[in-house]
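Discussion board: Methods & Data

I've been asked by a reviewer to show the raw model output for two of the constructs in my manuscript, not just the figures. I'm not sure how much to include, so I'm pasting the format here to get opinions. Each protein appears as its amino acid sequence followed by a line of discrete structure tokens. Is this the kind of thing reviewers expect to see in a supplement, or should I convert it first? Here is construct A:
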Amino acid sequence: MHYHVFIKKKIMKNNHQTLNEEILRIKSLFTEERLYGNLVEAGPKGMDPSLDDEDTPEKKKETPKKSEPIIITDHDPTWDYKAENGVWYTKKKNGGKDWISLSGNKKAYDNLNTKYPDTLEKSKNNTNNTDTDNTDTDNIDTDNTDTDNIDNNKDNTKKDINNKDGKKTTTDDNDGTKKDDGEFNWDDISGIDPITKDDKGNIRKKYKENRDNIKAEDKRRLQLCDDVVKTLSSAFLPTLRKRRISKEDWAGTLGEQSKVQQGLFEACLKMEKVVKKHSTGSFINGKNKLESIAGILSGDIDEETHLTSRYKLFRGNKEEEEETTDTKSNDDKKTTGTDDKGRQKWDVYSNSRVWGTLTKKGNKYALTSKFGNQIAVRGSNKLGDGIFDKFLKNKRNNFPKGLLNSLITANKNGNVETKKGGKVVIFNVN
């Protein structure tokens, strides 16, 4: 090989290596860091390339894009709703052009926030893309509506006016209608939930249960009253005096239970059914069963009178037929008592139970059934023999001597008159 050829090849080889190195050197100058730094440095304004991208003034001055408001169209059939910048707006579906702020309508706000709990919060990211000061967000027209008459802290959608008759009304700018001040808010009503058949059935069932409970409670109380009257009568009013016990012995034996029974008995005296059922017999000083027990418990009837008094329940027993020991006249001794007008009256028995009363006024005696039964034919002047035989001639009746014969004579002579459709029979006794 010739020398010059050798030298030429070596030079070409060296130049090739040098060119590759130069290309690599140039590429190293155009890394991302050097490239973008050079571009920033070459900008029209220039800046320190040492600054981070996040700290650049351009980044700080960047204005966020306006997000779309949240619009709701299926809340009710009449109105649409919009959430924007933390404020609810509304407009009519048909014919409504402008969005109206609901900031003054607490009820509407609460209903919307309840149904759409996160919507209002999400809408706070909305902006107007303006450089205005937004510190007073309550008075800003966020939807750019034509509301030139905005009054701070007031909702100008409704205006109060006075009618010709002086009545205060409110004009609703939504539809131009006039509403009386305090009138029902129709806008909040989207539909009516009717009461179902099952609901009505449950209500009727509840009423029936309440009635049944009341009846059951009444029955329970009447049974308690029957029991307490029976036990007190057994303790205080046996026909045989040797079987009676004093109130002191009774209370000492029962202890606190005696106070319970006494309280129950006093409560029972206020019940009409109890009084009607147990006001029977002739016991201490002509008092009936309830009156005698009440007198013993209250102390109105002293112990001596209680334990020594002789009284008559029924005829047939020698001790029962003994006369009472009070000092009244014979006629008074034989009376059951007096009515509310002070007239003498006697119980009339049917078998062993009181059926009615015979009341005296002057020389007239009125016979009535305690059950309000008709006992004679209307307009008649005579009582039927059946009533005499079954009731008036009952040996348990405590009539004064000779009174029964006088009634029989008056009835035989037609000296009888009927009143109240035959429910009352009056004997005129000469």
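Construct B, same format:
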Amino acid sequence: MDVFRIQGGARLVGEVHITGAKNSSLKLMAVALLAPGKTTIRAVPNILDVTIMAELLRRLGCSVSYSAETETVEIDVPATIEHRADYDLVRRMRASIAVLGPLVARTGAADVALPGGDAIGSRGLDMHTAGLERMGATVANEHGYLVVHAPDGGLVGTHVYLDFPSVGATETLLMAAVTANGVTVIDNAAREPEIVDICNMLLAMGAQIDGIGTSLLTITGVSSLRAVEHTTVADRIVAGTWAVAAVITGGDITVRNANSEHLSIALEKLVTAGAEVEITNDGFRVQMNKRPTAIDVVTLPYPGFPTDLQPQFIALNSIAEGSAMVTENLFEARFRFVQELTRLGAEVRTDGHHALIRGRSQLSGAPVEATDIRAGAGLVLAGLVADGETTVHAIDHIDRGYVDFEKQLSKLGANIIRETSPQLS
């Protein structure tokens, strides 16, 4: 099993280029199911999750090819597709649930295995299924599969109010609604840039959607959609990770091909921590020349502070001057990685959905294990500033969200290598 070995103490300096968002590209691949023909999606990161989603689409009957060199995926969707998403793939990646809406819309049925993925919380599917039921579908949980059938004549437009602005539920209902009969209103919809990206691709395919970027989406169903070419929105979480990397190492990193507006709160927090942030034409530059000041963080749905940057900011606070409170409002199990961070000497105490971090001037290297994608990134960042050697195990999690993470870190000056090692016991 691969691990990262990190020698702490390096200051990161240089440029990084951001590719398309993982949290968008996987869903765009699912969107392709809605239209027969060849769909081309650009700026698709070369990560494990893309490989898994490609195989899932193949088993549904599609022809899928991916070029790592051009970061382009081509999906040839037949006139008739299968409707069963197998357990062995879905269990490996929660984003597989994104095929639920398109399958019901295209075939009138879907058998989708209950998803797995990161161990960060329960993330139930109640809002997905309740919305589909309001559109006339029948939903059952049978033998580990979510079994959904549309009524005769197809799904019917309706008004759906989401109790919480769930990204996944918004995606499922949006993709189901674009070819439903009549008008569907999704109230309290998620507003993330990745949702906007999906909407923009659907518009190009011929969908009718009003209120894009707001919490009220109005979708007028159309009879059919067409295959298109689309470029994925830049990955704001990867961009934010590099911004934190600059601050935690006292470095100077220019982030290219990033939308700073998608990270406005996170970048403001880094300024509060003492960083200099310069907005550029194609991204931003983050410079730090002193020990950061501890900063409070409260995660909220977009445009609030993103939960996917919470572990990185806890790592930052662990070496900051002073104490800070981090409040996690989205995923109840996201503090699991704190146990690993304390192995590096961090002082973190958790109470429910709050974490109190007392900054230390120095962490100390130790073996740690990633529990999810962003926790893994946070542990790597902590290892960069720890004394001695840190080994990060279970880095397959990191590979699911970051392209050539260790290679990019090395180019910036980090002392990090990937090697095969026995799994941490």
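Answer (T.O., handling editor elsewhere):
This is acceptable in a supplement if you add a one-line summary per construct. For B, something like: DSSP finds 14 helices and 26 strands in the chain.
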